[in-house]
Each structure stands twice: as structure tokens, then as C-alpha cells.
Write a structure and sequence with these properties.
This protein is α+β, with helices and mostly antiparallel strands. The chain is built from eleven helices and 14 strands. It has a four-stranded mixed sheet with strand order 2-11-10-9, covered by helices on one side. Strands 5-6-8-7 form a four-stranded antiparallel sheet, with helices on one face. It has a two-stranded antiparallel ribbon with strand order 1-12. α11 links the parallel β13 and β14. α8 packs antiparallel against α10.
Length: 410
């Protein structure tokens, strides 16, 4: 199911008191108060994996390239780059005078150290495969060769060279991801994996981590040493952790938040009518899906069961009735909107609802399940009102179509 990010944004000049564990007097007057649905699991950019962590990390850090406000790839920490004639070597030229938030010089070697840490098996980075097209990355990730063999080097302080195993035309877009941001070696050496905490975190982006109150607030303040600090329009950003979507909407209505992470499905039509052009709806390039635990039964080595459960989910009902904010049904791993790519759809995508459900029942039976032997399964979802709505709906669909007994755990 392709999601659509619905953001309520109120443009105001008079900002209200910050909530969630920080005194308003401590925050600059020009502070953006925004909601976030759950705590970032970590602000170590090599170990983070969630959307909410990535949102904060993009404020704290910056990669070689970035995106403009209108979605075009633009130079970021690198001012330029060139590609060799065989499309196997990228040479990046860093901006002059780059500095970390503590004033230390930022060099190309810090990008080398970051990429080596990303693929180092000891890091266990969720996004290690992000740079798998760099020479020897595959072998480093699997532990077959040392990290020093990774095809990345810094001939001088402002030059970074990446050697690839094959032409990778989308590489620049990958280098906008937080997992490819540089690391501050001194902080890592001094604090180990604890470097990404208030008072220890050193950043290279527009903001620096000021405070973090678990389950309440992640507070960022302006990084005065950021190369483009003059273009930073907001002095501070407060991410308020608000698990319940309705509570987040109410805090927006009360003026405590200027920007929400989402709009509750039940309130979407009302918000559109009430706030007009304050409601911003834009395509969000992502797929919401349930993953099977393939490490053990019942899903290991049982493709028929996995297919039956997938076919029994009515994606159209989920997007139209359960969510109703413009989301689209998805029958592909890759959502619509990726440049120069047409997603390949699963085989049952063209079937009518009745045909799809009949096929699901046949596959369920082939998998060894039925009325006398119903599948009993746990569905685990992260705490969020919308996620719960989706889980309850899928639980009902599986029960109605197949007789599955699903237990929900958040």
C-alpha cells in the first residue's frame, strides 16, 4: 500500500510555548514545533532504520548530495563530482572550509571512515547494502575481506573517490540517505556507540542535538558552523513525540504544534474543510507492508501460505475505507513515482476481489490449513493509531476470507 504523507502546516509568526519536557524560555523564539509519531530508536545514523529517525538525522547531518525543496538532486557537502568514462569511478570534491558543529575541520577521510563503518559487520547496519555497488562492499559486509579493502579513498582532504563494481546511475540519490553521512572520528573514538547522545553528538548538518527526553521531545538547535548556516531560516526544531494521531491533531489545533506527522483518517475530511490550504498533501515514496518471519515455521518453506495471506488482504478497502487520505493500493515492492522505472506487479493484481479470495482459499488449503486447522499467527506493529487501524482491518480480512486466528501485539 503506497502511503501518502498528510501534513498539516500552520505558518505563523508568533510561536507558542514548547511542550514535552522543555521550558519555553530555553528555546529560541524562532522554533519550529513539529510532531513525530514515536521516538527515534537511535540517532546513530548507521544503526537507525525508521522513518522518524531519518527525519531527525536529515536535520542533524548532511551527505555528499541532497535534495532541493522541489525534489531535484543538488550538491550538499560535495560542491561537485565527476564520473569516469567507464562509469566506474566517482570523484567528489568537498566544499572548502567544511566544519563539524564543534568547529573541527570535516575532511574526505571522515566520509571514508563512515562508509567503512556502514559496511563493517560489527556495526550490523540495517542499510549496509546501500553502498553494495562500491568495490568490495559485498565481501566486507559478509566478513570475507577487511573493511580497509572497501573501494573508497581520500587522496586529499577535499577529494573522495568511490570505485564501483558496475555502473550505478542512481548512486548519487543513494548518497542523500542518512546512512551515508560522515562520522566524527574523535567522538566515535571517545564515546563508542554512545556518540549519538546529547552532549556527545557532533553533527555536520544545519542543526545540532540539544536535548532528548525519551517518549517526549527531541530538541535541535542551529549549528553555527554549518557551511550554509546563512540560509537556515529556523533557529531550532523541537520534535514532540505524540503517539496518538488525534492527540497530535488536538495539539496542532491548540497552537502547540506547527506541523504534524500525519492526519488521522477519521478526521481527514474535517481537517481539509476546517483548515483549507493549511493541509498539505504530497506523494510519499514508500510501501507499507507486513513482513513474514522466514526463520521458522509456519512461513519458512511455505510459499502457498504466504501467498494466501497476501491475496486475502483487500488493499482497495484499506486505502479507501480504512485510510481514505489518497493512499494507493500496492501490488509491487517498488511504489509508483520512481524515475525511469515501471514496477512489476504480482500475478494476482489483475484479478477481481472474488477471484482473488477464491485463489487465496485454495492456496491456504494447499498450505495445509483450513476450518479444522486454522492458522494461528501474531501480528506485531509499532505503536501508532493508523497502524492499529490497519492491523485490525487485516485481522478481520484474514478471519473472514481464510479463518485465520491472528493476535495483534503493538
Amino acid at each position: 500500500m503506497k502511503t501518502i504523507r498528510a501534513i498539516a502546516l500552520l505558518c505563523v509568526l508568533s510561536l507558542v510555548a514548547s511542550c514535552g519536557g522543555r521550558d519555553a524560555a530555553e528555546a529560541p523564539a524562532n522554533t519550529l514545533q513539529r510532531g513525530i509519531p514515536s521516538d527515534p530508536e537511535t540517532l546513530d545514523h548507521h544503526k537507525a532504520r525508521s522513518v522518524q529517525a531519518a527525519e531527525v538525522l536529515r536535520d542533524l547531518g548532511e551527505g555528499l548530495a541532497g535534495y532541493s525543496a522541489t525534489g531535484e538532486l543538488v550538491p550538499a557537502a560535495a560542491e561537485s563530482w565527476e564520473l569516469s568514462d567507464d562509469a566506474l569511478v566517482y570523484t567528489f570534491h568537498l566544499r572548502e572550509g567544511l566544519r563539524w558543529s564543534n568547529g573541527d575541520a570535516l575532511t574526505a577521510e571522515h566520509f571514508v571512515a563512515a562508509m567503512r563503518r556502514l559496511v563493517n559487520p560489527a556495526t550490523a547496519a540495517f542499510y549496509a547494502q546501500m553502498i553494495v555497488d562500491i568495490e568490495n562492499a559485498d565481501g566486507v559486509v559478509t566478513g570475507e575481506i577487511p573493511v580497509s579493502m572497501l573501494g573508497v579513498e581520500a587522496p586529499d582532504e577535499r577529494t573522495l573517490v568511490l570505485r564501483l563494481v558496475q555502473p550505478t546511475p542512481y548512486l548519487i540519490s543513494l548518497l542523500t540517505h542518512p546512512s551515508t553521512f560522515p562520522v566524527h572520528p574523535a567522538s566515535l573514538a571517545a564515546h563508542g556507540d554512545g556518540f549519538a547522545r546529547p552532549g556527545k553528538h557532533v553533527s555536520n548538518g544545519a542543526y545540532v542535538l540539544d536535548a532528548w527526553v525519551p517518549s517526549s521531545l527531541v530538541a535541535l538547535k542551529r549549528n553555527e558552523n554549518y557551511w550554509n548556516n546563512a540560509a537556515t531560516a529556523i533557529d531550532a526544531v523541537n520534535y514532540h513525540v505524540v503517539v496518538q494521531n488525534v492527540s497530535e491533531l488536538n495539539r496542532y489545533r491548540a497552537g502547540e504544534l506547527h506541523m504534524t506527522s500525519t492526519v488521522p483518517p477519521d478526521n481527514f475530511a474535517q481537517v481539509r474543510e476546517e483548515y483549507g490550504d493549511q493541509l498539505k498533501v504530497a506523494p510519499y515514496l514508500g510501501v507499507y507492508y507486513y513482513g513474514y518471519n522466514l526463520a521458522k515455521p509456519p512461513f519458512a518453506d511455505n510459499q502457498a501460505l504466504r501467498e494466501a495471506l497476501s491475496m486475502a488482504i483487500d488493499r482497495e478497502q484499506l486505502t479507501e475505507k480504512i485510510l481514505g487520505r489518497g493512499e494507493q493500493p500496492s501490488y509491487s515492492w517498488v511504489p509508483p513515482g520512481v524515475h525511469n522505472y515501471e514496477p512489476t506487479l504480482v500475478g494476482f493484481a489483475a484479478l477481481a476481489k472474488e477471484e482473488r479470495e477464491n485463489l487465496a482459499r485454495r492456496r491456504y488449503k494447499e498450505a495445509g490449513y483450513g476450518p479444522d486447522n486454522p492458522l494461528q499467527v501474531e501480528v506485531r506493529y509499532n505503536t501508532n493509531d493508523t497502524n492499529k487501524r490497519i492491523a485490525v482491518a487485516i485481522q478481520a480480512m484474514w478471519r473472514e476470507v481464510l479463518g485465520v486466528e491472528a493476535t495483534l501485539i503493538n
